[in-house]
Amino acid sequence: RPSLMRSASQLLRRRRSYSSASGQPERKVAILGAAGGIGQPLSLLMKLNPLVSSLSLYDIAGTPGVAADVSHINSPALVKGFMGEDQLGEALEGSDIVIIPAGVPRKPGMTRDDLFNINAGIVKNLCTAIAKYCPNALVNMISNPVNSTVPIAAEIFKKAGTYDEKRLFGVTTLDVVRAKTFYAGKANVHVTDVNVPVVGGHAGITILPLFSQATPSTNALSDEDIKSLTKRTQDGGTEVVEAKAGKGSATLSMAYAGAVFANACLKGLNGVPDIVECTFVQSTVTELPFFASKVKLGKNGVEEVLGLGELSDFEKEGLENLKGELKASIEKGIKFANEN
Ligand code: NAD
Ligand code: LMR
């Protein structure tokens, strides 16, 4: 019995272990799809994050090289590569955050929904493993179509009995990153000072930037300017897909956005107050079961889903117009998870 008690207290100590160098809690981050276009630069950025103590890089191919390469960087995170399904459990075990950029990207002429047939199955398998090996991790879903892959993940976790709506996030940070950049350019304000909430979902008209709430506010923008900024934000992904001309979609800006969002999740877990990011979560902000809006992040993931605030007439119209498509994409994900 004393030895049992000793091992239990050792376990507790290990669970609450703090890195002696930084005084930060030990945090393990796993990236699934780590050898891909997003996965590689995201692995680099997470290796540079001082809040990460262990970085687990998983893919079906290519991870030994990526892991060896990134591991030589002289930052604290301990990097390990895992390849193939039989190493997935080890990759996931003990993770605080799992970031998922696994799956195929768009080519010109495709919608994000055209990726559903391939990516839905990939996400389903990965989430089944998450439920088994790290059911308490925060899941950052990047794989498209996000409007469907997040509901798929929720259903898979529900089936496994591990679903916690506070721990599942669709990553829509790239929409915010774009809205900030485009707004700063048009309003002629310094980009690092800019904030713009983006709500709704992550595809075409479901992406609804709220420029009426942008800060610093400006009177310099006409209704036409706001319309064209909105359209450019909604079509930002397509702009990159077309410029890459068949070689995939946004990878570098997405890796940046994914790293920003994961860093916010880490800070929330570590108890840093007032961490707010826009993200696609289970929601009662509208009648739709999932919706992106500002979310306060805390020690258990979602601390509070914040409301939309005051909308302009143009934004109110955009909100009504997006609901049909977003509802259909959510329902498609739920149906897939329950039929396959
Ligand atoms: P990519 O093809 O360059 O990389 C995808 C990686 O996933 C590959 O390395 C592949 O081996 C891996 N993979 C495939 N099946 C896997 C599995 N079962 N388990 C683990 N890994 C697996 O694609 P990319 O450009 O990195 O894009 C990845 C996804 O992210 C796409 O679905 C894309 O549409 C999406 N995306 C989302 C956003 C967003 O804002 N949420 C932005 C950009 C891209
Ligand atoms: C993006 O917004 O860049 C991503 O969703 C990728 C895409 O297909 O546009």
Which keywords apply here?
340 residues; alpha/beta; 6-stranded parallel sheet; 16% strand; globular; disordered N terminus; binds nicotinamide-adenine-dinucleotide; binds (2S)-2-hydroxybutanedioic acid
Counting DSSP H or I runs of 4 or more residues, the number of helices is 11
Distance between the termini: 46 Å
Across the major sheet, the strand order is 3-2-1-4-5-6
Secondary structural class: alpha/beta
The residue-averaged pLDDT reads 94
Main sheet, how many strands, which sense, barrel? 6 strands, parallel
Form type:
globular
Could you tell me which ligands this complex binds, including any ions or cofactors?
nicotinamide-adenine-dinucleotide, (2S)-2-hydroxybutanedioic acid
Encode the helix/strand succession as letters. HEHEHEHEHEHEHEEHHHEEEH
> How many beta-strand segments?
11
Task: Give the radius of gyration.
Answer: 20 Å
User: How large is the share of residues in beta strands?
Assistant: 15-25%
Low-pLDDT ranges = 1-16
Helix fraction bin: 40-55%
What does this structure look like?
This protein is an alpha/beta fold. Helices cover 44% and strands 16% of the residues. It is built from eleven helices and eleven strands. The strands form three sheets. The chain has a six-stranded parallel beta sheet with strand order 3-2-1-4-5-6, with helices on both faces. A three-stranded antiparallel beta sheet has the order 9-10-11. The chain has a two-stranded antiparallel ribbon with strand order 7-8. Strand 10 and strand 11 form a beta hairpin. The radius of gyration is 20 Å and the shape is globular.
